[in-house]
Amino acid sequence: MTEKWLVGVDLGGTTTKLAFINLYGEIIEKWEITTDTSKEGKNIVTNIAKSIDEQLEFLGHPKGGVLGVGMGAPGPVNLETGIIYGAVNLGWKEEYPLQNIMEAETSLPVIIDNDANCAALGEMWKGAGNEAKDLVCVTLGTGVGGGIITNGSIVHGKSGAAGEIGHITSVPNGGFKCNCGKTGCLETVASATGIVRIAAQAIQSSNRETELAAIFKRNNKVSAKDIFDLARKHDQDALRVIEEVAFHLGLALANLANTLNPNSIIIGGGVSKAGNLLLDRVRMNFLKFAFPRVAKSTELGLATLGNDAGVIGAAWLVKNKLSL
Amino acid sequence: MTEKWLVGVDLGGTTTKLAFINLYGEIIEKWEITTDTSKEGKNIVTNIAKSIDEQLEFLGHPKGGVLGVGMGAPGPVNLETGIIYGAVNLGWKEEYPLQNIMEAETSLPVIIDNDANCAALGEMWKGAGNEAKDLVCVTLGTGVGGGIITNGSIVHGKSGAAGEIGHITSVPNGGFKCNCGKTGCLETVASATGIVRIAAQAIQSSNRETELAAIFKRNNKVSAKDIFDLARKHDQDALRVIEEVAFHLGLALANLANTLNPNSIIIGGGVSKAGNLLLDRVRMNFLKFAFPRVAKSTELGLATLGNDAGVIGAAWLVKNKLSL
């Protein structure tokens, strides 16, 4: 008998990740294609549908052996209508009926959710979440994203904006300007960009010839990686930058935990590759700011699925929808 | 045919509220009894069971016409075992098997949850929540309590500590000491006690002969009501105290909304009786600190059920459990 496959799609602004995944959450085959955002993004869905068919043919797997497509998309999604909002960097209009178009192009059942939510579902199913029913996933990348699972389901909220952890206000007064229109968002101090911003501020306000300042002078910029590399060599200025980032992250995550008391808060994304250098300091602040009963029960940990979380979680959407 | 009734119980440290409620959430009869915390609280459950039977007899309603008892209790509850933790002010041990004891004494099915969660369920069912699936309820009383509903269900979290909104850290450094062991909890600045504490600080730090200081000198204390009364007369010092409270509440509630994007955040409890004097200022801060998409969709409002929210929500637990 042909094994039943799920298709997981993780749609990004530059590349789209795809995978065939079985009902046990194992990846059979994964690949990537370029996201073609030209012509108001009208080729995006067609390219995905074509790529799935080509790959099935290449692997000799009949289309009838595919149960459906789950898809993580970069924007808030209306689950009932399958419309994605404000994915303007893909070239799409403010409201784009992604699910309908995907179903027409693939001739398969399609389920859409936000990409950060899919990553959270992936970690719940096969990653660090360990099938816990209450889980918060935070992605520290260029921005800060989040997905929240309570009682085994993603929280979407009234208009799909639940889980916007990056836009928790961390600096109520005098914070950096955020793309969202507010100031002082967690994203402005805890993303890769935010870390660099804090470092730049430290360089400007210091009179000493710090290592950080030297790197800045040499390269005309510093990167988050530079800062973590310096900190690993016990550079005090770099460590202070990380302390500040860890304070904001620890406080925000503790308040999330005070609110939701999840089994765990899982930290992923590029910045999380700093590992314990960052995590230990975040945890110290987390334990300081968490309600004692919460501090005892909610764990902080690193994501384990890396880039695969999105496609695995997207596939889970199909499995869940079809009650398999 | 005898109408089927639900029993809602709201167990408090001083009084216990009880009500018979029909399947439409209408209160048939409500009454209160004193909570007898003597002898390690061993009379509490017996008194409740007796009172239900007496009231049924008085109303001429057969016990067979009662479907079950829902109960809100002041502490974290394990839903699977029906054990309540740390309800020490009732005289009970750290772990008290409340559901089992209640079922034995009443000979009825019993469902227990935390009291703040019951209030939230009550507001969802028959109050300001308007049957919304995503709802946050905040109770501003002597302390600050909370109940969180996502996808139509209460969030309990790993150890029943979800919804501890009062222990969100609002003042990370140099905050007041909280009963929970931390410092700077929302409860220390936004409860009735917290408001008085902020006022006391304002009195101490001012050189002027303020109205607030005069009241303090006269009565040897100020109450939250004094402060709101003064503010209504446009007293600038009292208004500044309320501005500070509103800043902390607005920020904490905005961050809750940035996380969960609920349909609404409903504010109840004694302090909420200050009405728009407080609410307008909380809303101003809320709108400043909420992610734009959240600010547009999540509403702030006042609870409408008052003291009945707890018994109505407790009755809902039974209705929900029996899928009625």
Task: Write a brief caption for the model.
By secondary structure, chain A is of the alpha/beta class.
Account of the protein in words:
The first copy, chain A, has 2 domains: 132 residues, Nucleotidyltransferase, domain 5 (2-Layer Sandwich), CATH 3.30.420.40; 173 residues, ATPase, nucleotide binding domain (Nucleotidyltransferase, domain 5, 2-Layer Sandwich), CATH 3.30.420. Chain A is α/β, with parallel strands linked by helices. Chain A has 12 helices and 13 strands. At the A-B interface, strand 10, helix 9 and helix 11 of A face strand 10, helix 9 and helix 11 of B.
Secondary structure elements and their pairing?
The structure is a homodimer of 324-residue chains.
Chain A: E1 5-11, E2 15-22, E3 27-34, H1 38-41, H2 44-59, E4 66-73, E5 77-78, E6 83-85, E7 95-96, H3 98-106, E8 110-114, H4 115-126, E9 135-140, E10 144-150, E11 153-154, H5 187-190, H6 192-205, H7 211-219, H8 224-232, H9 236-260, E12 264-268, H10 276-289, H11 292-297, E13 299-302, H12 309-321
Parallel strand pairs in A: 1-4, 4-8, 9-12, 12-13
Antiparallel strand pairs in A: 1-2, 2-3, 5-6, 6-7, 9-10, 10-11
Helix pairs in contact in A: 2-3, 4-12, 6-9, 8-9, 9-10
